[in-house]
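Let us practice reading a record.
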Amino acid sequence: MGLQGDAAAAQEHAGHGSDRGFVKLDFELNDYPGPVKTALFGIQHVLVMFTAMVGGPLIVGRLLNLSEETRILMVSGTMIGCGISTMISALGLGFIGPRLPIVMGVFYIFIGPIVAISKEVSLAAAMTALIIGGAVQFAWSPLIGKLHRFFPPIVTGTTILLIGTGLMKIGINVASGFGTPAFGKPLTLGLAALMIVLILAISRYAKGFVRALSLFVTMVIGYVIAAAVGLIDLSMVEKAGWVAVPTPFPYGGLAWPGLIGVITVVICFFATAVETTGHTLAVSRICGVPAEGWRIRGAVSNDGLGSALSALFGGMALTSYSQNIGVISLTGVGSRFVVAFGGLFLILMALVPKVGAIIALMPNAVLGGVLLFMFGMVASVGVDIIGRNMTSRRDALILAASLAVGLGIQSAPPGAFDAIPQALRILVTDGIVMGILLAMILNLMFPKER
């Protein structure tokens, strides 16, 4: 750890509990639950986010019609990057990493630029663009670290509410099996609904260790039920190898992606920096620690380093996942050592493909039901913060405008933004980012009311 992180850690255990709202933690930020609980909690934290991690590379592979071998390389590189950067996120490496229970994953905004650069130049050029963008993200992290002063509680709450509600579309797409043969079938919808019922039942009636493992238990039950009704094909596990060793530059050496490609990717990284700032402040709040600039700088610099590392091994750009907010809020497990083990587990899955294949067989309905609940929990944290801090008409106007723009963009019909230049369109069509930026701007422009 860096000296700054160590100095702060001594004061964190007591925390700032009054800022947490309804969130009650059974394991605080610097608690170590013991080896068995740490392993199970860490696996639980990863399971909720694993499909989203590998989904990005698989979508790129499908859009570019890549060979199965190349797709496996992209998934493996992504998981290596996610695992290493997740461990750094939790434990820290000098000034890098916020030292918070944050799992890293793929940011889907990069899919468009990766596909475009790969078609125009090459896949190697797309990876080069991500490495350059990651370096820029790392370089401007000290500047982004100062943004916390522009995130008073009303802006933080609006940010978290936008993230939770904005991701609901992803959750329902996964839960309904969109894009798969199981889409909209009664069994798919019933299984997704059962996951929500199980989470509610376990969280309400179970106690202690079992309640803290509510998501893990729910997914295991869903996995077993899906296997019993024939929704899981284990042939994928049989085909997967036992050991895989990722190699740097799997698609060839560095290649210039073109100036427009670099600018587009850098704009995407700015979007990740904005969202990462919101995630970091939210996790700091529910963990009961001060929302300090060094944590944001550590998180943003880790985004850059992790993305460059992932691209080096053929993977996609990374960012902190908002599901962390929901998992911590629901399970009461806020230990960063738990998430560090989750990062180690991700590396294990990358190096032992059979393990990753077993996890990847998680049916969409099972994961989607859990994701819907998680995104609802994220939104509820935002509502809680807003409810305790919206004290004037000014605050109401900031919230209303930000939700109108953010959710409006998310609901816009196809082609609504075709008049905007392609490089800017990537940023403008991200409702979450635009809503957050508007909340920040309005907070600066509108005078505070007594």
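A brief commentary: The radius of gyration is 21 Å.
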